[in-house]
Amino acid sequence: MNLLRVSGSPHVHTDNSVKKIMYGVVYAMVPAIMVSVYFFGLDAVRVIVLSVVACMLVEFLIQKYVLKTTITIWDGSAMITGILLAFNVPSNLPWWIIMIGAIVSIGVAKMSFGGLGKNMFNPALVGRVFLLISFPVQMTSWPIPVPIGGTALTDAITGPTPLGIMKEGLAAGKTVQDIMPDIPNYVQNLMTGFQGGSLGEVSAIALILGAIYMLIRKIITWHTPGAYIGSVVIFSGILWLVDPSQYVDPLFHLVTGGMMLGVFYMATDMVSSPMSAKGQLIFGAGAGILTILIRVFGAYPEGVSFAILIMNGFVPLIDRAFKPVRFGEMVKG
Amino acid sequence: MLKTFKLGGVHPAENKLTVDKSISVLPIPKIASIPFSQHLGAPAKVLVNRGDEVKVGQLIAKGEAFISANIHSSVSGKVQKIDNVVDTSGFRRPAVVIAVEGDEWAEGIDRSETINKEISLSQKEIIQKINEMGVVGLGGATFPSHVKLMVPEGKKAEVLIINGVECEPYLTSDHRLMLEKGEEMLVGVQILKIALGVNKAMIGIENNKPDAIKHLSELASQFEGIEVYGLKVKYPQGAEKQLIKALINREVPSGKLPIEVGAVVNNAGTAYAVYQAIQKNKPLIERVVTITGKSVKDPGNFMVRIGTPISELIEAAGGLPEDTGKVIGGGPMMGKALNSLEVPVVKGTSGILIMPDEEAGREEVLHCIRCGKCTHVCPMGLEPYLLEKVVMAEDWERTEKEKVMDCIECGSCHYTCPANRPLLDYIRLGKNKMGQIMRNRAKK
Ligand code: SF4
Ligand code: SF4
């Protein structure tokens, strides 16, 4: 007989695993990937493939030659970062900028903290913000989507995003009502994806579909996205009610820019968000308010990335402040 | 809606392979090793010497400390030696080793099957007799039953809760006992009620045992003040605090006993043992043990004499499977991996689970991905990932503050962690360390 194994209880384990969770997120992004390919064609394929391969490669090289540890590039997390990074950049971004983005995302924001689970900030967001600051021109020239077999709205090849149009217009002293005609059918187009923007910013519907999948599989809970959306609606709603000529309505905020992507795919990143339900509510609400603050009063038209990164920084504090209810602290009958 | 507890909980695969196997009597072993310490508390003091003749039911070790329990011989024969044997704790501990000859019982023990419902003893006599007969909690914690029944000064018992939950996967010993010895068990419940001075008993059974719920409900209608409740299946509902929460919606405060909220919990098997002790004058010398496992040829439930080596039990179930990787005393969530097949069955052995090697190992441990699942499933509302971290960092102050001592070692956190973190290993380490620190503090 073989020797008996001896270890502490429990002796059984769920069949859930880190890998299953990570690939679940990847699957959730498939609809958005398909929509982005539909609108941006081969360019989208190029950016996504490049970004994913670059992220996995950087992780591989660091693990193999620098850290000399187990290679974990197939756990799905580098793939997620790659897709998210691709979703956050324009489809015509030069390949070498994408590479730099991957190096910053994986190398700096993930591996130097100790790899998956140890990173305080969402790697893809760090990469994106780094690129935005370093390559502002390339990062903000948004190709107009041309659906496969369709025609573009204008002759221009690139154009500003709805958020950019709004920001510039308001800065030039126009009112919201003056600017709106420049953003035709925005709600409808934004929901289905007919807008200038990053790859993954284009279609709210595809992103929401994936989010529902993640909710059903319990990869994410409703707390972070719910609080995020709620605080965006309330905060931008107040501003809008105060002065509809200077502030856009909440729906505009919800469907433009990286809102849906940020709310469902980046703010919910388990590694860089709080543990408890209460903590997640605070986290989501904070990110929502910061997003609107930056969009309305900041220098950048878009504020989702900054807002989430700032809230990532608060997570250790939030976790310490919001403990789960201990048994025995509830009703005593 | 079915009752259950609120915080946390998991649903491990039930694998109750032996639910239809009625209890059969395991042949008496040739050698019985009966440890002195089969209960929580001080070991009993041995009364016999090498070469002594003993009978079944004879007192061989006396529980003298306040928290201790008597030990009786489960066989008849000659004391071969008093020596250290490996027991279910994995350590070598003192035991009386008896070479079995025949099956001769001590006088005064009623071995008939006739059910005696007439309870003639008083509250005090009952508690004393339970003490004499060496009855301990049979659900696993093996706390001496007579101590549990002595309500401390200033507290009042309001309700007796009988634990028929059996939430551990694989185990079916309580289930079978409820089906086959239900009536005796309910008489035991009545006896426990008298001992506690309460007039209400609630029996909690998980809904995956509809036959037991039905059977006991029917029987209970013949008794005064016994109610049977079906509970929603959720692990660890059989844990004392969780069961109390489920049945009467009260929470035992941190570091306190159930009596704090007016409840006393006894296991279904214990109620049966109490019946035997009081009505039949029969000490706790045997118990039902489930022998099971996916590769086991003939899994089943057996009435086993205490001290029987588990190898005989395994033999009765068709022998040790080829692919055996782990042998567990108890269930897969809270049981202990055994390091020998000669370990004797003791009062706390509810089952022997044999796991195939491919299921017995542990997966590669990854970094915590902060998914929060461990916190989510912890029935005590703890943060297992955090406890692991502070124990690793040997930050004992924080370990205490994060309530490590509240952990009931149910294993739900560990079970559910997608990164396969050995959370409970570290938490146990932290509890041991905290125990030391607290003892030192008490000394000062
Ligand atoms: S083993 Fe302890 S920490 Fe883990 S879930 Fe159970 S009670 Fe909570
Ligand atoms: S379940 Fe595991 S991975 Fe998830 S938070 Fe707890 S320790 Fe971390």
Model description:
The complex is a heterodimer of chains A (333) and B (444). Chain A is mainly alpha-helical and 333 residues long. Chain A folds into 2 domains: 18-139, no CATH class; 162-195 and 216-322, no CATH class. Helices cover 59% and strands 1% of the residues of chain A. Chain A has helices spanning 18-28, 30-40, 42-66, 77-87, 95-110, 123-134, 136-139, 162-171, 176-179, 186-192, 204-216, 223-242, 250-255, 259-266, 277-297, 304-321, and strands at residues 142-143, 158-159. Chain A is globular. The N and C termini of chain A lie far apart (54 Å). Mean pLDDT of chain A is 86; it is low at 152-156. Chain B has 444 residues and is of the alpha/beta class. Chain B has 3 domains: 23-109 and 284-359, Roll (Ubiquitin-like (UB roll)), CATH 3.10.20; 123-280, Rossmann fold; 373-443, no CATH class. In chain B, the strands form 4 sheets. Chain B has a 6-stranded mixed sheet with strand order 1-14-13-17-15-16. A 4-stranded antiparallel sheet of chain B has the order 2-8-7-4, with no helix packed on it. A 4-stranded parallel sheet of chain B has the order 11-10-9-12, sandwiched between helices. In chain B, helix 1 (123-132) packs across helix 4 (182-196) and helix 11 (384-392) crosses helix 14 (423-443). The longest helix of chain B is centred in the C-terminal third of the chain and has 21 residues, at 423-443. Chain B is globular, with a radius of gyration of 21 Å. Chain B starts with 22 loop residues before the first strand and ends with a helix. The model of chain B has no long low-confidence stretch (mean pLDDT 92). At the A-B interface, helix 1 of A face helix 6, strand 15, strand 16, helix 9 and helix 13 of B. The complex binds iron/sulfur cluster (2 copies). Residues 368-374, 384-385, 416-419, 421, 423 of chain B line the site of one iron/sulfur cluster. The site of one iron/sulfur cluster has 15 residues of chain B, from helix 13 and helix 14.
